[in-house]
């Protein structure tokens, strides 16, 4: 044994340069792999446990009643919904599909869509799987991050809406209105469905970049070595983003589509982005990034003083005028006259009333 040990030492001494090169290569590969594995574990834990704050209590609005409907999701799962007809005596302007946020249900459409119904829009609202009255397969757990199952639910709602419109003798074109995770599903279905004429996305985000944000934000808590989270090049984060999504697919047995990629591939469609200025769960920058990628025409409203999905609570009159004006212009095609003149984006102060002028202006300079 002593002879063998001395032989190894002698071999290393005579080939020290080669040994050093091999050791360096191993070091340069093993350490990044260890760091990557650490970050992936962190990101998966974030996806398991981090839940968005519920913006409102369950009784902070009066329910809207409508005609109960049911339809299959794209994968055949039965879903429950409700068709809310436009207020009687008002000229009909179109149909809007409403997609609720995580841990909510179809009835939350009253919080966001009542002004639209009063203005003449029919509203199709439904429960995503595992929410409200809709079923959920035992093998699937709904998450705050939009999945391919949520997209299947949104596809089912779109197919039902198109069939209903044709039966009523209307063109099979409609708008979509989503909040938080529902906004993500609305954007994803619009990518593949040209019949979606206009999109309102309140609190939208892309899972990949949002998880990356959380990892950057919390890395110092989990990583003991500062080198593991400081001064990492952009390629590191892009590779980490890919690895995180890959392992999330395997662990949760579902896919997490990228809203960021969907917007980059989308044909031009009018899009209105809304985000709370004081959103501590999903920072404003997440929506700003999506807005920057979106094709024209696009609009952005950062609601001052509002947290996650609270713009409608802090600025109810402005919110109503903004969303109604947007759909009037881009779904009902009523033109800028209905908007009261050249449209403009304004973020009202929480201490002032909404401005009396029009509520929309296409402004590519808003970042």
Task: Give descriptors for this structure.
single chain, 367 residues, alpha/beta, 8-stranded mixed sheet, globular
What's this, in brief?
The protein has 367 residues and is of the alpha/beta class. It contains 12 helices and 8 strands. It is globular and about 60 Å long.
Structural category is alpha/beta
Which regions have little confidence, pLDDT < 50, spanning 5+ residues? 54-58, 337-367
Give the count of helical stretches.
Answer: 12
Strand order of the largest sheet: 1-2-4-3-5-6-7-8
In the CATH scheme, the class of the largest domain would be Alpha Beta
Instruction: Give the total of beta strands.
Output: 8
- Compressed to H and E, one letter per element, the order equals HHEEEHEHEHEHHHEHEHHH
Overall morphology = globular
- Roughly what percent helix? 40-55%
Number of domains: 2
Beta fraction: 5-15%
Q: What is this structure's SSE topology?
A:
Blueprint: H1 2-14, H2 16-49, E1 67-72, E2 78-84, E3 94-99, H3 109-119, E4 121-126, H4 148-167, E5 174-179, H5 181-192, E6 196-202, H6 207-222, H7 234-252, H8 259-265, E7 271-276, H9 284-293, E8 298-303, H10 311-314, H11 316-330, H12 336-339
Parallel strand pairs: 3-4, 3-5, 5-6, 6-7, 7-8
Antiparallel strand pairs: 1-2, 2-4
Q: Can you walk me through this structure?
A:
The protein has helices spanning 2-14, 16-49, 109-119, 148-167, 181-192, 207-222, 234-252, 259-265, 284-293, 311-314, 316-330, 336-339; strands at residues 67-72, 78-84, 94-99, 121-126, 174-179, 196-202, 271-276, 298-303. By secondary structure, the protein is of the alpha/beta class. The chain folds into two domains: 2-49 and 210-252, no CATH class; 67-206 and 258-339, Rossmann fold. Helix 4 crosses helix 5 (181-192) and helix 6 crosses helix 7. Mean pLDDT is 79; it is low at 54-58 and 337-367.
